[in-house]
Amino acid sequence: MDRMLYTAMSGAKNSMDQQSVVSNNLSNVTTTGFRAQLQAARSVPVQGEALLATRTSAVTTTPGSDFSQGPVEYTGRTLDVAMQDDAWMAVQADDGTETYTRRGDLQIDSDGVLLNVGRPVMGEGGPIAIPQGAQVSIGADGTISAIPEGVGPEALVEVGRIKLVTPVEGALTRGEDALFRAQPNEEGEPGALPADENAKLVSGALEGSNVSAVDAMVSMIDVARRYDMQMKVLSTADENAQRANGILSIQG
């Protein structure tokens, strides 16, 4: 009885947590460059004052993200870029640290700073600044060229190069802001990956989310059914307890 209650209770909680992950993935099925979250569960003995050999709980874990490539759509927009293969773009987070993303719908703010969803895009020496009113083009290696306003193509100049990195498997972890970060260094400070000179991007295109709407919907239904099953187990345990108490009262 005791084992049944704890297993069903923790299983129901795990189902609710998994439903949150699936819902988040489904809500980002159209988000550019989004990487689906993965979720799993493991069983652990209950600790603390409730410690008993029969009490085991299911604990939710988020082992990582799905790094498979999403569909690439050609837009023709000059500031749209899609990373090729395993390349990632470096951007500056709100706390000033270097983070990484596959999202490539770039903008230029009123100060001429190249932005990725409001965050500065990192170049070789920091955020990239572009002359106001210039015609911009982005090369396959991330090099940004600009033609100042009012002059001809002969005035084409290089204004910066987007920092592209190619992380090894397991090198990136997802943050609460949906940006990915490198593992901290030995001193515990935020890490930064070296630029990859061979990393490439496609200009005039965007990579879509790698979330499958069909798979996410199926997962949502499956999780809901498992939650109902766990609640049924709790109800059955309560009925068994009441019947056991009734038998004991008769015998008494």
UniProtKB/TrEMBL annotation:
Extract the InterPro entries matched here: Flag_bb_rod_N, Flagellar_FlgE/F/G, Flg_bb/hook_C_dom, FlgE/F/G-like, LlgE_F_G-like_D1
Designated name of the protein: Flagellar basal-body rod protein FlgF
Subunit info?
A: The basal body constitutes a major portion of the flagellar organelle and consists of five rings (E,L,P,S, and M) mounted on a central rod. The rod consists of about 26 subunits of FlgG in the distal portion, and FlgB, FlgC and FlgF are thought to build up the proximal portion of the rod with about 6 subunits each.
Coiled-coil stretches, from where to where? Answer: none
Q: Does the keyword rRNA processing apply?
A: no
Please state every residue range assigned to the domain named Flagellar basal body rod protein N-terminal: 5-35
Keywords tagged on the record:
Bacterial flagellum, Cell projection, Cilium, Flagellum
Q: Where is it localised?
A: Bacterial flagellum basal body
> Which superkingdom, per the lineage?
Bacteria
Cite the Flagellar basal-body/hook protein C-terminal domain residue spans from the record: 203-246
Question: Family assignment?
Answer: Belongs to the flagella basal body rod proteins family.
| One Pfam family per UniProt | Flg_bbr_C
Q: Where does the Flagellar hook protein FlgE/F/G-like D1 domain start and stop, copy by copy?
A: 83-146
**SUPFAM superfamilies referenced in this protein's UniProt entry, alphabetically:** Flagellar hook protein flgE
Q: What is its main location?
A: other
